[in-house]
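We include this case.
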Amino acid sequence: MYETSQVLSIAAPPSLVWEVLTDLSSYPLWNPFIPACSSTLQPGSSIKMSVKLFSFAQPQVEKMREYDEGRHFAYSMIPVPFCLSSYRSHDVESLGGEMTRYTSVFRLKGWMSRVVEYVVGRRLKNGFGGMSEAVKRRAEELWVERRSKSNKT
C-alpha cells in the first residue's frame, strides 16, 4: 500500500474552503497539480482531470465514489483487479470561527502500488502536497479579499 496525506489548518471558513475545492472550473487559476478538472461530483459520475506528474499534464478519468455537501468527497480509479486500486478524498471540517481543517488523502492498494510508489511516489507526494498548500493559499486569499470588500460597503 502507498499513502500520502496532508492535514492543514486554513484561516478561512469551511464554506469557502469547500467552494475552492468544488469550483472545478477555477482549478487552472490556482491548482499546480490538477490544472484542469470537470465533474458533476455526484457518486457514480466521472471526474476528468489533467494531472501534472511530470513537466506536462496527462489525462486521468476516475469515478466519483462519495459526496457529502460541504464536508467530504472522494473518487477512485477504475481498479485493475488484484493489481491496483486508488482512493482520493477531500475533507473539510470547522475548527470554529473562521478556521477550517482540510484533510487530503491519496491511497493506492494492490501489489502494483509498490511499483507506482517506486516510479512516481515522490512526484505524487509533492503533487498532492502542492495542491493542498494551494487550496490553503487560494482559500485564505479569497477570504481576505471578500472580507476587505464587505468592510468597504
Notes: Residues 50 and 102 are 22 Å apart (CA to CA). The mean pLDDT is 96. The chain has three helices and seven strands. The longest helix spans residues 112-152.
